[in-house]
Known about the structure:
Layout (H helix, E strand, L loop, with lengths): L1 E4 H6 L1 H9 L4 E5 L2 E6 L10 H11 L9 H8 L2
Amino acid sequence: xxxxxxxxxxxxxxxxxxxxxxxxxxQITENRKTLARLVPPTPENPDWSATFEKLDxxxxxxxxxxxxxxxxxxxxxx
Length: 78
């Protein structure tokens, strides 16, 4: 992670934003205190497949506890 002072950020915002666009995290400081962190954006369409695989490992493809989503929706319509 790169560190940039607030005054340096003001004078070179375009180059700092280029760093962030290239995937670098940038910490902004003033008087040796962290003010903020600039992080690259998350992907527009994240890949959830690994998350669902982990849930399958935990639950073993058993039904999740509680009501099914369709039951919750239909009971809310009554």
